[in-house]
Amino acid sequence: MNKHDGERVAGMLEALGAHEVADADQANIVVFMTCCVREAADVRLLGQVASLKNLVSNPIIAVGGCIGQRDGEKLVQQIPHIDVVFGTHNIAHLPLLIAASLEDGSKQVEVIDDAASKELSVDIEAATDLPTQREHAWHAWVPIMTGCNNFCTYCVVPYVRGREKSRPIEDIVSEAERLIGEGVLEITLLGQNVNSYGRDLFGEPRFAEVLRAVGATGVKRLRFTTSHPKDLSADTIAAFAETPSVMPQLHLPVQSGSNSILEAMNRRYTAEQYLKLVRAVRKACEEQGKDVVFSTDIIVGFPGETEADFEATMDLVREVGYSQAFTFIYSKREGTPAADMTDDTPHEVIQQRFDALVELVQESAYQQNQRDLDTVIPVLFEGTSKRDPKMLSGKSPKNQTVHVPLPQGSAAKDYAGSICEVHINEAKTWYLRGSLV
Ligand code: SAH
Ligand code: SF4
Fold it and tell me: Is the C-beta atom of 430 inside 6 A of ligand 2?
């Protein structure tokens, strides 16, 4: 979501004549799109803003995103060289705020709360109408809803992104059609809980309909994030399996494999229900000849997590066999219910559990990748590998990174943004290697 917001900010500023520079010390305007899901992100913002303090170019510094929404006025009081603060619902006004600050050196803070944003209905419109400077010409983020109603007890998102608001399905489809007309091959539908898309509009979720409708626009690759297990319906599973452009990777955050921790997290499913969903998705995909992989998010060290709870998480990870997992050490967030829960697990124990989980996830990713050895898969190329300019890099349907040698006499740009068949001859933990067919 932040990447997408960042692309919109860049798009708006470019539409007004600004252009992107490589380093902050050449910039007249620096905009931070912030995240406060974990403490590390908070700390990073402070460090990065501090590092801009003595720049000769003396840029205007604007802070948006979740920290902007949460702290508002407090930010300019705490860090006097921040000039502009804007909330998650105020992106569309950023150019005005920057202009006002440039004019007289004043501090500009605009943070409206969720209720006010509903009344003005600025949020979703902003998502559709703003110009966007996309990172890759062939990939677009398409928000289908904003906000979250779930209040998982560890999570700050509902407090800084407001309640769920779905975009009309016609708007989503027409935006997808426009993007495809502009050469976009891959679309990622965005929402904190895409499976509940439409509940606020129609009284019931209609995400399956979105998948089928966007899938029918001619998009080559369709992805979405994030899918909450409690709202993953049979109809959505069917649409996922049956729609050919929907890529065979399901990101299904589990957070923990222990039922008592899941309950304390207010996730509203059990490990057994989660595993049942995984089996149902596998079965539906098998019937369609789709070789599906699963990825997930896991939190280690939630307050009160015992060794047995952690072992339940390890068991679940073994059972699912994830291709990828984002693992996090629990981070206490003020204002969330979990912040008041007591915890006496020593940090070293949590760190050991975390390390063991990371190792297991790596093994699992390695095993999953072996399944693609000696197969031919379509790869959407992005450019050269960061490490080796003689290698092309791209993404497989399952979202694996794939490297192939750049053919002699060709340039990476000849391949960037196109899909080519690749024969896989090496499968590692975090990437596949192959040759162009
Ligand atoms: N809406 C999505 C993603 C939310 S944030 C979802 O429900 O899956 C992305 C991930 O950050 C979460 O899935 C969770 O694993 C992690 N996360 C959120 N709050 C956290 C916290 N306080 N400490 C550690 N990890 C957290
Ligand atoms: Fe946070 Fe839970 Fe909402 Fe995801 S579903 S954004 S983890 S409250």
Answer: no
Task: Name residue 258's amino acid.
Answer: S
pLDDT at 127 over 90: no
| Cβ(293)–Cβ(266) below 8 Å | no
Ligand 1 centroid vs 258 CA: distance in angstroms? 17
Q: Are 29 and 18 in contact (CB under 8 A)?
A: yes
- pLDDT tens digits along 84-103: 999 998 998 999 999 999 99
Do 2-117 and 376-436 show the same overall fold? no
Instruction: Provide the residue type at 348 as one letter.
Output: E
Q: Which two tokens stand for residue 412?
A: 């990476």
Per-residue pLDDT tens digits for 147-161: 999 999 999 999 999
Rounded to the nearest angstrom, the distance between the alpha carbon of 327 and the centre of ligand 1 is 10
Domain 124-370 top-level CATH class = alpha beta
Could you say which ligand is closest to the alpha carbon of residue 354? Answer: 1
Ligand 2: nearest atom to the Cα of 148: 3
* pLDDT at residue 128, as a whole number: 59
**Does residue 73 register a pLDDT over 90?**
yes
At 323 the three-state DSSP class reads coil
Q: How far apart are CA 381 and CA 404, in angstroms?
A: 10
| Residue count of the chain | 437
Class of the 376-436 domain? mainly beta
Ligand 2 centroid to Cα of residue 191, in Å, is 10
Nearest atom in ligand 1 to the alpha carbon of residue 331 is: 23
Token digits of residue 373: 């050895």
Instruction: Give distance in angstroms: CA of 144 to centre of ligand 2.
Output: 16
Third-level CATH fold of 2-117: Rossmann fold (3.40.50)
